[in-house]
Design goal:
Elements: E1 20-27, E2 37-45, E3 51-58, H1 68-71, H2 75-78, H3 84-95, E4 99-102, H4 105-118, E5 127-130, H5 131-138, H6 147-154, H7 164-185, E6 191-193, E7 230-233, H8 241-250, E8 254-256, E9 265-267, H9 276-284, E10 288-289, H10 291-297, E11 338-342, H11 346-358, E12 362-364, E13 373-376, H12 386-391, E14 395-397, E15 433-434, E16 440-442, E17 447-454, E18 461-469, E19 481-482, E20 494-500, E21 503-509, E22 519-527, H13 532-535, E23 538-543, E24 552-556, E25 564-573, E26 576-586, H14 590-596
Parallel strand pairs: 1-4, 4-5, 7-8, 7-9, 9-10, 11-12, 11-13, 13-14, 15-24
Antiparallel strand pairs: 1-2, 2-3, 5-6, 16-26, 17-21, 17-23, 18-19, 18-22, 20-21, 22-25, 23-24, 25-26
Helix pairs in contact: 5-7, 6-7
């Protein structure tokens, strides 16, 4: 199969024209810092849309090839293949100066970064584009966003799934169609900057072991320690700090790096030292003991209550009954409608989006293929997207429409006003649950992705973060705070993925979380002086995989002054896991939010 024909229709694509390097890798597993690349394919395309190069090869990883039933690459097939370092230079030449494109691009990018580091080379990529993230913005009417599903939707032939070269050729067709849709909707490309990086470690960090026991509370005066008590240490000690912590962990204590309301006891030889931990302990009324008393009490630690005691929630979520598709009711006239609100003051736009949800609709934050109606408030007629909305023949309403909307079937535009190409007529709009603020759903599978997205607003930078919390809603150790500087917790159960400047995802493996983990809170914070009043609405979507269709969506509006926003939380309830859309904002910054969850932040 050749891609020698132009990939993009005239006229010139303008902001959508780049030199592209389309990449696909097959790997021995899913963790880049542990697993290896088994095959790699690169197809290069110029800004004019013509293919300029193609390369593919099997790679001998020097290890077990992993799930052969998925990729079909046995150890025998890989035996005579070159090692990655033997082909790294050629791959680097094809990537240099181009935008790396892949479906779930962070996966391919991270694997290549580690392989180049193994070869003692830099990965020569400065930008990447994820076609998965791009299609989440386009929001095509497909059952999911898998490569094969998008290929069928866009009419791209696929011959050999999980073959790196064929997947890359298919990706070229999907990129062509996706860029055309992005241009039609005037969507900015979700390009992610990729600063130079070198990976110094090629094996996972050993995960810390969470305490196996529940927190019994504070140490009583003259009492004994009990397994599960939260113990913090501050100041100078005669015994090495690492030894004190090790002995406490061995005794079943929960050795913490910070002090919170739930701390059981503070170990310090200088309670009046004025350290941050000592000040917080005094303010919370937490008892303090010296090093000698702590060592003596370690000899008589009483048994605690295990997190895995009868009645505790299992680590694998229990299945739920399939939800039936609700019928349209007279009090939900906007059911199955996706409404974009433009213009108005912040308060007016919030009220309009709230009304959309009350009427059974879904409030959009960006123009996409799934938008069915547009509500224009004062000043909204000046929005740069209005020309595209007119070309797409979308229904445009004013605020009076929300007082008494007319229920109507979704209208699908049959022709693209910009290109004249016919749109598919056999469209099935995927169904998802619209969650109001505080809305809850049960989770039926162990792996979940929470994706947050927002409209681009100048130089405002939003960071999505996650906290893995125990029954006291505190992190067990600082590494359970996942953020841009530490995008994965030690066990790899919670990961931060970046799909573009206005989209970030937290991926969670609920089944792999230890019994001590009762909740995962996902939040967003703004860097600098901007507030969420400047950003506007934030949309969150939950899906049971990176390329799955959303099972639920919520549109969260903070007020005008908040700098941090709790987006949602995954939590245990009896025998199941649930997700709640939160939407609670705070005026303070990320550092204060992290301290509230027990993360030690250096001033």
């Amino acid at each position: 199969m050749s891609l020698a024909t132009p990939s993009f229709p005239p006229p010139a694509m303008g902001d959508y024209a780049h030199d592209w390097a389309l990449v696909d890798v097959e790997t021995s597993g899913l963790i880049p810092r542990r697993d290896r690349v088994l095959s790699v394919a690169v197809v290069t395309i110029g800004a004019d849309g013509r293919q300029t190069g193609e390369f593919s090869t099997l790679v001998n990883p020097g290890c077990d090839p992993g799930p052969v039933e998925v990729h079909g690459l046995t150890a025998e097939r890989l035996l005579g293949a070159p090692a990655f370092e033997q082909v790294a230079e050629r791959i680097g030449e094809m990537l240099k100066g181009r935008v790396l494109v892949a479906h779930n691009a962070q996966f391919d990018y991270d694997f290549l970064a580690y392989e180049f580091a193994h070869a003692r080379m830099w990965l020569p990529v400065s930008q990447r584009l994820c076609t998965l993230a791009l299609n989440r913005q386009v929001d095509p009417p497909t059952s999911d966003l898998k490569l094969g599903t998008l290929a069928a939707h866009y009419g791209v032939p696929q011959q050999h799934a999980h073959d790196a070269l064929d997947d890359t050729r298919v990706l070229a067709g999907i990129l062509r169609a996706s860029l055309r849709e992005a241009a039609r909707l005037a969507l900015p490309l979700p390009l992610v900057p990729c600063p130079p990086r070198a990976e110094s470690q090629f094996t996972p960090k050993p995960p810390k072991t969470p305490c196996a026991y529940r927190n019994p509370g504070r140490l009583e005066p003259g009492g004994t320690l009990q397994q599960g008590m939260k113990v913090a240490i501050t100041g100078e000690t005669s015994t090495a700090r690492a030894e004190l912590i090790g002995r406490g962990v061995a005794a079943g204590l929960n050795m913490m790096t910070s002090v919170s309301h739930h701390t059981s006891v503070l170990v310090t030889n200088e309670p009046a030292s004025g350290s941050a931990k000592a000040r917080r302990a005094a303010a919370e009324g937490i008892p303090a003991i010296d090093e000698g008393a702590f060592l003596k009490l370690l000899d008589t630690v009483e048994p605690g209550t295990s997190h895995e005691a009868p009645g505790a929630a299992p680590s694998v979520p229990a299945p739920r009954r399939p939800a039936t598709t609700p019928t349209r009711s007279s009090d939900k006239p906007l059911q199955d409608r996706r409404v974009l609100v433009l213009g108005g003051t912040h308060e007016e736009a919030v009220a309009a989006r709230t009304r959309v949800v009350e009427l059974g609709g879904s409030a959009a934050v960006n123009l996409s293929r799934s938008v069915t109606d547009v509500v224009v408030l004062t000043g909204g007629e000046k929005d740069r997207r209005m020309r595209r909305i007119a070309e797409l023949e979308l229904a445009v309403q004013d605020e009076r429409w929300l007082a008494d909307p007319t229920a109507a079937s979704i209208s699908i535009v049959q022709a693209d006003a910009a290109t004249g190409e016919e749109a598919p007529t056999n469209i099935t709009v995927p169904q998802f649950q619209v969650l109001p603020r505080g809305g809850v759903i049960d989770l039926s599978t162990p792996e979940w992705h929470l994706t947050a997205s927002w409209a681009p607003k100048g130089h405002c930078e939003v960071d999505v973060v996650a906290f893995v919390l125990d029954e006291d809603e505190q992190v067990t150790f600082d590494e359970d705070f996942v953020f841009y500087g530490a995008p994965e917790n030690p066990a790899g159960t919670v990961r931060l993925l970046t799909g573009g400047p206005t989209e970030q995802t937290v991926a969670i493996d609920l089944a792999a979380l230890p019994p001590a983990s009762h909740k995962v809170v996902v939040a967003a914070a703004i860097d600098g002086t901007a507030t969420f009043g400047d950003i506007g609405a934030v949309q969150i979507s939950t899906a049971s995989g990176s390329d799955a269709a959303p099972s639920a969506r919520a549109t969260l509006d903070a007020a005008t002054t908040e700098r941090t926003l709790l987006l949602g939380e995954f939590y245990r309830r009896g025998l199941i896991w649930r997700f709640r859309a939160v939407g609670q904002g705070y005026d303070h910054g990320l550092d204060a939010l992290a301290r509230g969850f027990g993360v030690e932040i250096t001033d």
